[in-house]
Design a protein that fits this description.
single chain, alpha+beta, seven-stranded mixed beta sheet, 18 helices, globular
């Protein structure tokens, strides 16, 4: 594999704004010599808020997040002295609406809010699921942007909305005054044709949605404006600071940050969600792919992120919140140690079941799902945690197997990136379930991918994705998990899950 070439003075720094569903962080990346170094300079919580009378809509605290971004950029500029560029990646599907003056019309609604209830039937009446998939190749999820848009147009805000901005594009607009729609995140709206990498006019017309409400598409590496004067004063001491479009869907950036050698790999981007799939050159839009609930999201450099989006550590995070609220706070490290001693595959649930989507009451919902399928319900936190992790490993196993079958490509290594790399039990269970070696790391894959794209756009790095990934080799400490044990218990457990979910 060719090595990346560097054309950068020592110490050139880039700021990656990386917002996840539970926290945000600003990470400083320095390209120097023949390597890339990262340092987290600011972290802040992402706490959704319920408000709005009887309906009590679940919102993102977008102004609180923006304040965290500004504080983080100040910290990054103070640490670095000079920022060469800023890039932003966040979660997908959600958006803010702007009025004719460019002012935000209310806090963006959280994808876990119930406003999309009933919207699937409304969309299906206009466009069947097979037709929608043939046009967009997107996995069916009840919170996809098309369902949110259909719900939003019932609101008073919709009548005065003049533009829609996805979350990373909204933050970029506030920083620069420049509006655009980055294409990797736009591909999660279910309004993009992955073959043309442009808006699907047939879908928009069938659903009576005006895609001109979104500003023009831009691509990773494109300029996205400059920090407005006075926005981050400490960053402006050395002149204008450009903002660069990156893979603004955090998974798009995370896939760039997968330290893979060659093409025979699968990735699992772990965190609140587990996104399991492969990097392809072209989308797979077959009916078999739709029935397997695989998505064709756009990646950097014309690639396709062919993956299945399933529940991730959200299940465990919700249990931890519930135990703490009940006065039984759990030390995660100790809990995982106890969970490791629970017999493997004692009880498992379908980690992709929509019944686990909403917040609240997760411990009881998991127990009830086990009882409903004739399995012993977890009796304590350790058994619940083990049920969650075994179930996630099974979901990873199924997605990796289906990705190989549907793409007709072999996987030799599974790369786990994101927050889940710190969960050693989950990584080992994933290796055991898949029967494949798992390489864990980096946890900050999205930030690495974000900064690699910025550095290449600035001319500090050169090469394609495979070449850029060679930069990661000297920057990372990875851990290898070899598969152990017999595959037959996993096969039997997978059959239990298929039976409980009614899938074939």
């Amino acid at each position: 594999m060719p090595r990346a070439t560097f054309d950068s003075p020592a110490g050139v720094a880039y700021a990656a704004v990386d917002l996840g569903a539970s926290s945000g962080r600003v990470i400083l990346g320095t390209v120097a010599g023949e390597g890339l170094a990262l340092e987290e300079v600011h972290r802040f919580p992402n706490r959704p808020v319920r408000a709005g009378g009887a309906e009590r809509t679940l919102h993102w605290d977008i102004l609180g997040l923006y304040r965290g971004v500004l504080d983080g950029l100040c910290a990054a500029a103070t640490k670095a002295g000079r920022l060469a560029s800023v890039g932003i990646d966040t979660w997908a599907v959600d958006f803010g609406m702007l009025d004719a003056d460019g002012a935000l019309l209310g806090n963006p609604v959280h994808y876990r809010d119930a406003r999309t209830d009933g919207m699937e039937a409304e969309v299906a009446a206009a466009l069947s699921a097979p037709e929608l998939y043939a046009h967009t190749g997107l996995q069916h999820l009840p919170f996809n942007t098309v369902y949110q848009l259909c719900a939003a147009r019932r609101s008073a805000q919709w009548t005065v909305a003049r533009q829609l901005l996805l979350i990373p594009d909204l933050l970029s607009y506030w920083l620069t005054g420049t509006r655009g729609t980055e294409v990797t995140n736009a591909s999660t709206t279910q309004l993009i044709d992955p073959r043309t990498r442009d808006w699907s006019r047939p879908v928009a017309e069938a659903l009576d949605l005006d895609v001109s409400l979104f500003p023009p598409l831009r691509h990773p590496g494109d300029p996205a404006g400059e920090l407005l004067p006075g926005t981050v004063p400490v960053a402006e001491r050395h002149g204008p600071v450009p903002v660069t479009a990156v893979g603004s869907h955090d998974t798009a950036s995370a896939v760039v940050g997968v330290p893979a050698a060659g093409e025979d790999f699968a990735y699992i981007a772990t965190g609140t969600w587990s996104l399991v799939g492969m990097e392809l050159d072209t989308p797979i839009l077959t009916e078999e792919s739709r029935r397997a609930n695989f998505t064709n999201e756009l990646g950097v450099d014309g690639t396709v992120r062919y993956l299945r989006n399933t529940m991730g550590l959200w299940l465990l995070q919700e249990c931890l919140r519930e135990w703490e609220a009940g006065g039984s706070r759990q030390n995660l490290s100790e809990l995982l140690g106890r969970a490791a001693k629970v017999p493997v595959l004692r009880s498992v649930v379908d980690a992709g079941d929509p019944e686990f989507l909403a917040p609240g009451g997760m411990v009881g919902r998991i127990a009830e799902a086990c009882r409903r399928t004739g399995q012993p319900a977890p009796r304590d936190p350790a058994q619940t945690a083990r049920c969650v992790l075994d179930s996630l490993a099974l979901a990873h196993r199924a997605a990796v197997a289906d990705a190989q079958r549907l793409s007709n490509r072999e996987v030799r290594t599974v790369h786990v990136v994101g927050g889940g790399v710190h969960n050693e039990l989950l990584c080992q269970l994933t290796a055991d379930a898949c029967g494949l070696p798992v390489v864990a790391g980096p946890a900050e894959a999205a930030a690495y991918g974000n900064i690699l794209v910025q550095a290449r756009a600035a001319g500090a790095l050169h090469g394609d994705l495979a070449t850029l990934r060679t930069v990661l080799g000297s920057a990372l400490r990875l851990r290898l998990y070899e598969p152990a044990g017999d595959q037959r218990p996993w096969e039997r457990a997978a059959a239990r899950v298929r039976g409980s979910s009614g899938t074939t």
